[in-house]
């Protein structure tokens, strides 16, 4: 069964703080995604990747950087966190592009920026 | 501009009843339409999906319908159960691109 893990599960930081969210998948999937989920907005794509070293810009990338260090690991970086980035963040992986493959989601990281 | 619109935002049905969720989309190049189910405290999980070459797909109590001319899709749940209480997201993409566009979700409550 597909396995996507995220850490930390909860994070509180202050405005201007530096935050890194981690995602690891053990499915040997090439494609990985970072989403944020907010009430009334569903899931919005921040960044995604086709493989190690590759990065694609999603629909709401402002204020976020991402890095795919290996096939398994995908990181989301908030270098100057703002209260508007308070949200529930999900990582997902798939074995085909988002247009064709089932996406397997992690359990989420709840981030609060004070 | 929101490319995938979902309705209703929330819905309550009685156990045994039929649930109908609907979505509409803008981009005529979209040709893949999955529905994801999310329980509280968990990530979404794929429930059922349909390609634009089909107009209907069934999986047990769940059926999704697709209308290409009207750019609409729907999810029907027959014999709804309290265990179906969850948030449901429709999504859409072009199979040639790398990303899905999600609707805002419908919170379904099934009362016993």
Summarize the structure.
The complex is a heterodimer of chains A (114) and B (112). Chain A is an all-beta fold and 114 residues long. Chain A has strands at 4-7, 10-13, 19-25, 31-38, 42-49, 56-57, 65-68, 73-78, 87-94, 104-105, 109-113.
Description:
Helix content of chain A is 0%, strand content 51%. Chain A has strands at residues 4-7, 10-13, 19-25, 31-38, 42-49, 56-57, 65-68, 73-78, 87-94, 104-105, 109-113. In chain A, strands 2, 4, 5, 6, 9, 10 and 11 form a seven-stranded mixed beta sheet that branches. In chain A, strands 1-3-8-7 form a four-stranded antiparallel beta sheet, with no helix packed on it. The radius of gyration of chain A is 13 Å and the shape is globular. With 112 residues, chain B is an all-beta fold. Chain B has one domain: Immunoglobulin-like (Sandwich). In chain B, strands 2, 4, 5, 9, 10 and 11 form a six-stranded mixed beta sheet that branches. Chain B has a five-stranded antiparallel beta sheet with strand order 1-3-8-7-6, with no helix packed on it. The mean pLDDT of chain B is 94. The A-B interface holds A 4, 31, 33, 35, 40-45, 48, 50, 56, 58-59, 90, 92, 97-100, 102-108 and B 6, 9, 31-32, 34, 36, 41-46, 49, 89, 93-105.
């Amino acid at each position: 069964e597909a396995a996507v893990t995220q850490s930390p599960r909860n994070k509180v930081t202050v405005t201007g703080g530096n935050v890194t969210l981690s995602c690891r998948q053990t499915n040997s999937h090439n494609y990985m995604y970072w989403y944020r989920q907010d009430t009334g907005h569903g899931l919005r794509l921040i960044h995604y990747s086709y493989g190690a070293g590759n990065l694609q810009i999603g629909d709401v990338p402002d204020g976020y950087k991402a890095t795919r260090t290996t096939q398994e690991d995908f990181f989301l970086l908030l270098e100057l966190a703002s209260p508007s980035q308070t949200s529930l963040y999900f990582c997902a992986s798939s074995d085909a592009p988002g247009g064709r493959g089932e996406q397997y989601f992690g359990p989420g990281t709840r981030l609060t920026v004070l | 501009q929101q490319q995938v619109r979902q309705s209703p935002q929330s819905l309550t049905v009685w156990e045994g009843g039929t649930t109908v969720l609907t979505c509409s989309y803008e981009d005529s190049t979209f040709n893949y339409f999955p529905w994801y189910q999310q329980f509280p405290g968990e990530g979404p999980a794929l429930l059922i999906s349909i390609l634009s070459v089909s107009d209907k797909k069934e999986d047990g109590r769940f059926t999704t319908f697709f209308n290409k001319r009207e750019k609409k899709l729907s999810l029907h749940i027959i014999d709804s159960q309290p265990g179906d209480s969850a948030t449901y997201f429709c999504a859409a993409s072009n199979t040639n691109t790398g990303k899905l566009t999600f609707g805002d979700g419908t919170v379904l409550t099934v009362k016993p």
